[in-house]
Amino acid sequence: MTFTRTLPLTDISQADACSSPLARAAIAPDHADSLARSLKALADPARLRIISIVAAHADAEACVCDLTDQLTLSQPTISHHLKVLVDAGFLSRAKRGTWSYYSLVPGSLDSVAGVLAAV
């Protein structure tokens, strides 16, 4: 003897059938693009060290000579990393005589910190 049993079907055509409501606003696409570029600039151990060294100095400003003394990189490599951080808006550069001084741009790490804090 064979029995055939019919199971009820669930209508999954409803858009909200499998999603839960957002608890907060998601990042906008243009902000995601901008933030990704910023994160790429920080996604290097040497650049993170440079940010940390500059932030550790009085007034969050350091001479390039302070950086070369603490990093085990060549001067051209350090200059490249500094340029990336300046171009990304994390550091600003001021020339004083023959030396360049780098300082943290106020608020430049806020958007990165905000995203990381929300995770």
UniProtKB/TrEMBL annotation:
CDD domains: HTH_ARSR. InterPro entries: ArsR-like_HTH, ArsR_HTH, HTH_ArsR_DNA-bd_dom, HTH_MetalResp_TranReg, WH-like_DNA-bd_sf, WH_DNA-bd_sf. The keyword Transcription regulation applies. GO terms for molecular function: DNA binding; DNA-binding transcription factor activity. SUPFAM superfamilies: Winged helix' DNA-binding domain. Residues 27-119 form the HTH arsR-type domain. It holds the Pfam family HTH_5. Keywords: DNA-binding, Transcription, Transcription regulation. SMART domains: HTH_ARSR (SM00418). It comes from the Bacteria. PANTHER family: ARSENICAL RESISTANCE OPERON REPRESSOR, TRANSCRIPTIONAL REGULATOR, ARSR FAMILY. This is Transcriptional regulator. It comes from Cryobacterium levicorallinum.
